[in-house]
Amino acid sequence: MKQILIDCLNKIELNLIQEKINQLDYLIDLTLEKNKVMNLTAINDENTFIDKMIIDCVFLVKFFDLENKSVLDIGTGGGFPGLVLAILCPNTRFTLIDSTSKKIEHVNEVKDKLGLTNVNAFACRAEEFIKQNREKFDIVTARAVKNLQILLELCSSFIKISGHIISYKGSGYKSELIDSQNAINVLNLELIKEVKYQLPLSKEDRYLLEFKKNKSSSSIYPRNYNQILKKPL
Ligand code: SAH
User: Fold this and answer.
1) I want to staple 155 with a disulfide (CB 3.0 to 4.6 A). Which of 43, 83, 93, 140 is the partner?
2) Rounded distance between C-alpha atoms, residue 91 and residue 69, angstroms
3) Model pTM score
4) Is the CB of 147 under 6 A from ligand 1?
5) For the chain, counts of helices (H) and of strands (E)
6) pLDDT class for 1, splitting at 50, 70, 90?
7) CA 90 → CA 127, 197, 232, distances in Å?
8) What is the mean pLDDT of residues 129-147?
9) CB–CB of 82/119 below 8 Å?
């Protein structure tokens, strides 16, 4: 058991049952081990990984209630935040997608090793996955996936009316928000919550942005990826 993980959880005042701490501990080992042979994260140092990946992902549950919801994590990579949140919220159903199949293979391995029964992971692009999953989810999460303007187009069609997008962001988020004004309008979204928090070891600031979908948007969204990149909303 990594003492630093326990110290960080204490610092952010999150009390977890022992089983969840054990699962987080195991997730750290499995990710850093696999990171030696494939690129899951740029971070290799264990303490930095705990601070900037694990605890960063964990913070969401301090501010948002995911209990009994259906959550889609888009561009989950090695399972961030999807696997972390699935450990913390066993009664919530998580769907994780990423366009890189090797990352999803790893996510499925970890899911089995941790015994997580509330996770389904698919190797699929968001623009493809939408075909069977329009307005299916209560919440979409995304961390370190594109800029906000592009991300909102990728995410918004997956959520039900009155559903929410929760995006993890760094300090550049204010200018991303300005650039996203048109996307927010066109997609019938509304920014309803901005949360600032501090990572316990690096002391760096991070942000969570929550958008609500007030009504359906046109079924042309998300457009194909080239168009999204070439002509962002
Ligand atoms: N969320 C993870 C990974 C971020 S890297 C983390 O915080 O560590 C961004 C990931 O998004 C990559 O793994 C990439 O494969 C995936 N991605 C980018 N565009 C995508 C799309 N259109 N559909 C699905 N996944 C996408």
Assistant:
1) 140
2) 8
3) 0.97
4) no
5) 12, 7
6) confident
7) 28, 24, 36
8) 96
9) yes
